[in-house]
Design brief:
Layout: H1 8-18, E1 22-25, H2 34-43, E2 51-56, H3 61-70, E3 74-77, H4 82-89
Helix pairs in contact: 1-2
Length: 92
């Protein structure tokens, strides 16, 4: 099942309710950005094992470091070929 939300607050709320195996986040979200959302998810004991992958246009080194420091398991920079995204997510 796939859920789509448009901001970090809703992502956190839905994740808390459904306890997903994998979350794909963008760094640039309105309100609570993806980095803060990731940190909040990883703080939650019922979600801290959830796999988080950033899929974002932010390709600066500092953005990638911030993503991993927040607890992300992977960081994929747009644009990519969609088949690559599928193959890249297979291990998860």
């Amino acid at each position: 099942m796939i859920f789509k939300v448009n901001n970090g607050e809703d992502a956190l709320k839905i994740a808390t309710e459904i306890k997903p195996h994998l979350i794909i986040l963008d760094v640039m979200l309105p309100g609570m950005d993806g980095i803060e959302t990731c940190k909040e998810i990883k703080k939650n004991s019922s979600l801290n094992k959830t796999i988080i992958v950033f899929y974002t246009a932010r390709n600066e080194d500092y953005s990638q470091i911030a993503g991993f420091d927040a607890g992300a398991d992977d960081y994929i920079v747009k644009p990519i070929i969609h088949e690559f995204l599928s193959v890249g997510l297979e291990p998860y």
